[in-house]
Design a protein that fits this description.
It contains ten helices and no strands. By secondary structure, the protein is mostly helical.
Length: 209
């Protein structure tokens, strides 16, 4: 006689089958936890399948490759960062101080909200030309957005691309330092704010707006 328990008579609830969107969300959440707990090096599709209690083909179906998984994590981070910054810009004062504060605060806050794992994901993206291009495309969107909202405070001047890339480099470095506890979030935000204001002042001809 079979000893298999029938959930219809045992009182146990049968496990609900997740939709594809729900499964995707579950896998991303598990991937973020894995990176946080074990580091980016431990992030493989096989390890993710094990932690998520699914078969490897399920994970491969969602991400294809490890690179696809890394890209999905970075895209989610960028989407969150964009939404945070856009909302803050809509509510900010239309002054250089207000806009620069929003950029500095939202960038650092988003990195800290994601935690120490995002620097590892960003570093891993640099290991592949294809993934590096994905990161660079999102960086270009961010830089263009900053240029658009800061240019009105540069007078007749033009904010040089070199200055915008320097600003982004500072944002990444300062946020990373804050995420690892080397400096405080406030220190990172204040330094980035000063970097942004100085960049606009140079474009305006040296006078701080």
């Amino acid at each position: 006689m079979s000893s298999t328990t029938d959930p219809r008579t045992s009182g146990e609830r049968p496990r609900r089958r997740l939709t594809r969107a729900e499964r995707h969300r579950q896998l991303l959440d598990a991937a973020w936890r894995l990176v946080s707990d074990e580091g980016t090096e431990a992030l493989t599709l096989g390890r993710l399948a094990e932690l998520s209690d699914v078969t490897k083909p399920v994970v491969y179906d969602h991400f294809g490759t490890r690179g696809g998984l890394l890209a999905a994590l970075y895209q989610e981070f960028d989407t969150r960062q964009t939404a945070l910054m856009d909302a803050a810009l809509r509510a900010s004062e239309p002054t250089l101080t207000g806009i620069a504060t929003v950029i500095a605060t939202s960038y650092v806050d988003c990195v800290l909200l994601q935690g120490r794992e995002i620097p590892g994901v960003i570093a891993a993206l640099a290991g592949s030309p294809e993934l590096e291009k994905i990161k660079r495309d999102y960086e270009l969107i961010f830089i263009e957005k900053c240029r658009a909202v800061l240019t009105p405070f540069a007078g007749a001047g033009v904010i040089a691309p070199a200055g915008l890339w320097a600003m982004l480099g500072a944002a990444e470095a300062l946020s990373h330092a804050a995420a690892t506890g080397e400096i405080s979030a406030g220190e990172a935000q204040r330094e980035l704010f000063e970097t942004i204001v100085a960049m606009v002042a140079r474009a305006a001809g040296g006078d701080r707006p």
